[in-house]
């Protein structure tokens, strides 16, 4: 598995495709109620210093199957918010999102220089909550009634992880 920068038009378009699919964006919030993103928005996002985007690949080749990101990077405070989208659902339950998240955290703490990473998941997104738990995040609170999917209001569960608490997972 590799994490590759989102720096080529074909990767930007692929990520935008994934993030424009309702099955993916329903779990996300890119600010001001924005969920699905266009290619132009992904291209801008990939160039901003408060964002860190990487596609992740299979073990066998460099075919991208998902994206991991850090948003709201605050370099002065050494914090950021992590997120993961498995774009190609044929790889679900094979541990790719978990390992990609682990590699993202390693990069967040070593390459980006963060001390703390937070993450949230919608209360009914059990697969994301399992990944968050396996990555050793600690619960820090619940943001009540802040996410709407198909007209139903859900809570968001928030977690954080400090650099010394992270150990990269080799296998899922």
Structure description:
The protein is of the alpha+beta class and 172 residues long. Helix content is 28%, strand content 34%. The chain has 5 helices and 7 strands. It has helices at residues 9-19, 22-25, 39-47, 96-110, 126-134; strands at 3-5, 52-57, 64-74, 79-86, 116-122, 138-149, 152-162. A 7-stranded mixed β-sheet has the order 1-2-3-4-5-7-6, with helices on both faces. Helix 1 (9-19) crosses helix 3. The longest helix is centred in the middle third of the chain and has 15 residues, at 96-110. It starts with a strand and ends in a 10-residue tail after the last strand.
Quick summary of this structure?
This protein is an alpha+beta fold and 172 residues long. The protein has helices at 9-19, 22-25, 39-47, 96-110, 126-134, and strands at residues 3-5, 52-57, 64-74, 79-86, 116-122, 138-149, 152-162.
The poorly predicted ranges are: none
C-alpha-based Rg, rounded: 15 Å
Classification by helices and strands:
alpha+beta
Envelope shape = globular
Please give the alpha-carbon distance between the first and last residues: 12 Å
Strand order of the largest sheet: 1-2-3-4-5-7-6
Mean pLDDT over the full residue set:
91
Report the biggest beta sheet as strand number plus sense, adding barrel if it closes: 7 strands, mixed
- Share of helical residues: 25-40%
Features:
single chain; 172 residues; alpha+beta; seven-stranded mixed β-sheet; 7 strands; 28% helix; globular
